[in-house]
């Protein structure tokens, strides 16, 4: 997978405006604290002396946790999900905050920054996917009790975290030609409609779908996480915990309420909802566990590398065509051929570009300014007669460096927008000025262009996209688990979680 190809978009910006964002974009107004909550907070504060957790060298205070817990409380109430006791809610919120802090520190380490232009683009995406103007979006946000400045700041954080996931995870997933061949053979050379992003989310109370689009499946989960290196006795203990949770669910307890109080998944405070996706967009493990379940039914316990999962089928059927707020752009891997062409039969003529590039990644050591200056110097050396491919071999930080930065033939939509826009502005033989993407700074040279009939290749592109989507979520969870395991975490509200990590 060529790293420049990653094209994932922000997941939580595509949910309904006033819905629940897993990482807090739809922020609630600060509620009043009742006496029980105040007593719980006071008791906890005395116990931890005002410090809820330490993540590496950064402190998360109890006050910060309480603010987030009250927001989560309102969020659950809006969704009509049973709200856990405040002490339980504190622990759930703190786990989410720890994860976000670990990700934030990693983004800092890699020097990932979000420009104003990228934030504005995210706002435009939210508005367009909800079929409203930016002005209307602002009205809706402020009507919910959230200031526009707070919304924008949280959205910027979401974009940054998504850029981190793109850089750290997406580029590690490689789909071989043999895997594509096997998938097409298993499908009888017929493919479903294009799938959507694995992290797209839907409201808890989804409207019935119309019988016109591709087969879709909506799931929720309760996850009992198993830490890396857990002993057999720990695994058995956690399995028993999962079995007890499953017994409660099958005994009639509210699935979303138990997820909010007991799940270790990042979507716990959204009632465990994983979203609504075309069937082929789910990991194989989830498909196998739910293939015979109807809407409203719950799976047995299934085990993955991350722990024990209990799945509930929320929706099963066909999606209405025409799109809703969760319709996503294709994810990295295949070319993102325009939707009109995806449905077309017969010749599919596409203009492709043969290009190469030099990538300099920004980091704490290599600032954006230094990276841009470095590429300007390299560009001048090329203009003065040095070969682009020779400098790429010595200087590029992309996996294509040994090939002189050669990216091969690129189809429209196959690279991230900033890269593609700069590439499309070049004539064959021309070299771009330094341009920035979420992967760093690029110097691009266009070698040649051609128009090609993609009819015979498009099915392979779709197959590659489906296989990519099936793998991205498990890969992301594995990466995040490793990131947490490498960090020093002292959770003072839930010391047991510290022991589970050892």
From TrEMBL:
Transmembrane regions: none
Q: Where is the composition biased (Low complexity)?
A: 192-211
Instruction: Please provide the record's keywords in A-Z order.
Output: Chaperone, Isomerase, Periplasm, Repeat, Rotamase, Signal
PROSITE patterns found in the cross-reference section: PPIC_PPIASE_1, PPIC_PPIASE_2
**GO biological process terms held by the UniProt record:** Gram-negative-bacterium-type cell outer membrane assembly; protein folding; protein stabilization
Single GO term (MF)? peptidyl-prolyl cis-trans isomerase activity
- Which residue ranges does the record assign to the PpiC domain? 214-315, 350-448
| Top-level lineage group | Bacteria
Show the Pfam families listed in the entry: Rotamase, Rotamase_3, SurA_N
Enzyme class, broadest EC rank: isomerase
What are the EC numbers?
A: 5.2.1.8
The annotated region (Disordered) lies at: 191-211
| Signal peptide range in chain numbering | 1-28
Keyword Mitochondrion in record: no
Q: Which PANTHER family match?
A: CHAPERONE SURA
Q: Where in the cell does this protein reside?
A: Periplasm
The name under which this protein is listed is Chaperone SurA
């Amino acid at each position: 997978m060529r790293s420049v190809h990653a094209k994932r978009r922000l997941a939580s910006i595509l949910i309904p405006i006033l819905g629940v964002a897993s990482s807090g974009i739809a922020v609630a107004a600060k509620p009043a604290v009742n006496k029980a909550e105040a007593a719980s907070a006071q008791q906890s504060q005395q116990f931890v002396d005002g410090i809820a957790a330490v993540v590496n060298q950064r402190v998360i205070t109890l006050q910060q946790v309480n603010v987030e817990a009250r927001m989560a409380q309102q969020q659950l109430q809006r969704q009509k999900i049973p709200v856990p006791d405040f002490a339980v809610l504190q622990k759930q919120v703190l786990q989410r905050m720890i994860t976000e802090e670990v990700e934030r520190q990693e983004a800092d380490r890699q020097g990932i920054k979000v420009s104003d232009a990228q934030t504005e683009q995210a706002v435009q995406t939210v508005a367009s996917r909800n079929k409203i103007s930016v002005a209307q979006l602002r009205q809706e946000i402020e009507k919910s009790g959230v200031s526009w400045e707070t919304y924008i700041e949280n959205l910027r954080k979401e974009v940054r975290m998504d850029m981190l996931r793109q850089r750290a995870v997406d580029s590690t997933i490689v789909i071989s030609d043999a895997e594509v061949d096997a998938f097409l053979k298993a499908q009888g050379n017929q493919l479903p409609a294009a799938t959507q992003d694995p992290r797209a989310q839907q409201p808890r109370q989804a409207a019935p779908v119309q019988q016109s689009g591709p087969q879709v499946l909506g799931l929720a989960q309760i996850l009992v996480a198993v830490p890396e290196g857990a002993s057999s006795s720990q695994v058995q203990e956690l399995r028993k915990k999962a079995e007890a949770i499953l017994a409660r669910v099958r005994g009639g307890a509210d699935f979303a309420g138990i997820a909010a109080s007991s799940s270790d998944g990042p979507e716990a405070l959204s009632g465990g909802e994983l979203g609504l996706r075309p069937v082929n967009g789910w990991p194989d493990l989830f498909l196998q566990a739910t293939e015979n379940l109807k809407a409203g039914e719950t799976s047995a316990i299934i085990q993955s590398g991350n722990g024990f999962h209990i799945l509930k089928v929320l929706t099963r059927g066909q999606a209405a065509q025409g799109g809703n707020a969760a319709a996503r752009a294709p994810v990295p891997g295949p070319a993102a051929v325009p939707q009109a062409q995806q449905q077309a039969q017969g010749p599919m003529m596409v203009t492709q570009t043969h290009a190469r590039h030099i990538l300099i990644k920004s980091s704490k050591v290599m600032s954006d300014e230094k990276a841009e200056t470095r590429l300007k110097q390299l560009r001048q050396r090329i203009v003065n007669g040095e070969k682009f491919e020779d400098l790429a071999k010595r200087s590029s930080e992309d996996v294509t460096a040994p090939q002189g930065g050669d990216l091969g033939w690129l189809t429209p939509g196959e690279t991230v927008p900033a890269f593609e826009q700069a590439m499309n502005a070049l004539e064959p033989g021309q070299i771009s000025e330094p341009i920035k993407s979420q992967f760093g700074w690029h110097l691009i040279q266009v070698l040649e262009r051609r128009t090609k009939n993609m009819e015979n290749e498009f099915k392979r592109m779709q197959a590659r996209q489906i296989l990519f989507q099936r793998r991205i979520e498990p890969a992301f969870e594995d990466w995040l688990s490793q990131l947490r395991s490498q960090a020093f975490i002292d959770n003072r509200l839930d010391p047991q979680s510290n022991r589970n990590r050892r």
